[in-house]
């Protein structure tokens, strides 16, 4: 919770992180829209998808502008999807929560990058049914580098130990889902899980270690089953039709970052106590 000689109150920390999160969410909206189209994410500046008009900076302030413009383009009046605000608010809230829980620590920074990547993966997967490699493979690289820079992320004193734990996490993560994908294909005779999911779980393992993989696996399968079966019950989907799994992986990993790890430690603590 310490940043040099000055100690931030958690509320102020969360507020600052939340404001930055909203801006990052705004940038992620651009990425979600442009990456599947293979267009540059830095140039040109934001444009209205309806009329192509450039959006001025004062109409591009996260959340605020959408409300001020009453969800319409200033030039052509076309409605602006509430999803833009949803993504901005989501990242803002998650970054605020991370700052509140972890302070200005390596865990905050890695968690913040992870939340941004998982949000990107979630919405691209919902739109296009795939997860960009720069999120999944990029996440594996980020996890390995972070382990080397901050061994304490993996409860290690030495860099190579942390690096080994990060690599183990990536292998367990990708391996588990890859095995599941193979079994699924045998049983159902169709692709049950994409390679994007396999690589994304590898990234989750590289960043947060194999316990996070186990936790994410359990929470994502459970939430995925509940949502999938609900859609079938509501006759919105057929039992065999595919729903993207990326959003559930993102949900599981985010829960891990915002307290899941503590529940896990509690659970392991209980198990060891019983054994004694
Ligand atoms: Zn317009």
What is this entry, summarized?
This protein is mostly helical. It has helices at residues 10-34, 64-68, 83-102, 106-128, 133-149, 159-188, 195-208, 210-233, 246-275; strands at 2-3, 6-7.
Please supply descriptive tags for the structure shown above:
276 residues; binds zinc ion; 2 strands; mainly alpha
Question: Care to describe what's here?
Answer:
The chain starts with a strand and ends with a helix. The mean pLDDT is 91. With 276 residues, it is mainly α. A two-stranded antiparallel sheet has the order 1-2. The chain has helices at residues 10-34, 64-68, 83-102, 106-128, 133-149, 159-188, 195-208, 210-233, 246-275, and strands at 2-3, 6-7. Zinc ion (ZN) binds at residues 48, 50-51, 53, 73, 75-76, 78.
Secondary structure category: mainly alpha
Shape: globular
Order of helices and strands: EEHHHHHHHHH
Bound molecules: zinc ion
Can you count the helices? 9
What's the main sheet like?
2 strands, antiparallel
Distance between the termini: 34 Å
Helix content: 55-70%
Instruction: Calculate Rg over CA atoms.
Output: 20 Å
Beta content? under 5%
The overall pLDDT, averaged over residues, is 91
Low-pLDDT runs: none
Which sequence of strands runs across the widest sheet? 1-2
Q: What is the number of beta strands?
A: 2
Topology:
Elements lengths: L1 E2 L2 E2 L2 H25 L29 H5 L14 H20 L3 H23 L4 H17 L9 H30 L6 H14 L1 H24 L12 H30 L1
Antiparallel strand pairs: 1-2
The structure holds zinc ion.
The site of zinc ion has 8 residues, from loops.
């Amino acid at each position: 919770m310490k940043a040099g000689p000055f100690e931030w109150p958690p509320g102020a920390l969360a507020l600052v992180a939340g404001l930055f999160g909203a801006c990052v969410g705004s940038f992620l909206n651009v990425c979600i829209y442009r990456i599947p189209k293979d267009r540059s994410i830095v140039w040109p500046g934001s444009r209205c998808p309806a009329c192509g008009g450039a959006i001025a900076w004062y109409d591009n302030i996260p959340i605020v502008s959408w409300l001020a413009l009453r969800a319409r383009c200033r030039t052509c009046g076309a409605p602006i999807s509430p999803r833009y605000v949803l993504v901005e608010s989501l990242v803002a809230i998650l970054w605020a929560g991370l700052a509140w829980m972890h302070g200005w620590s390596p865990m905050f920074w890695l968690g913040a990058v992870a939340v941004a990547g998982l949000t990107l993966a979630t919405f691209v997967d919902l739109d296009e049914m795939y997860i960009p490699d720069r999120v999944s493979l990029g996440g594996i690289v980020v996890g390995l580098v972070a382990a080397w820079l901050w061994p304490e992320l993996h409860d290690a004193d030495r860099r190579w130990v942390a690096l080994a734990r990060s690599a183990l996490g990536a292998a367990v993560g990708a391996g588990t889902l890859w095995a599941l994908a193979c079994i699924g294909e045998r049983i159902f005779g169709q692709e049950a899980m994409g390679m994007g999911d396999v690589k994304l779980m590898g990234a989750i393992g590289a960043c947060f270690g194999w316990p996070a993989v186990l936790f994410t696996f359990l929470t994502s399968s459970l939430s995925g089953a509940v949502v999938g079966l609900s859609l079938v019950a509501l006759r919105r989907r057929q039992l065999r039709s595919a729903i993207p799994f990326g959003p559930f992986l993102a949900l599981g990993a985010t829960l891990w970052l915002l307290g899941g790890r503590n529940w896990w430690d509690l659970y392991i603590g209980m198990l060891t106590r019983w054994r004694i």
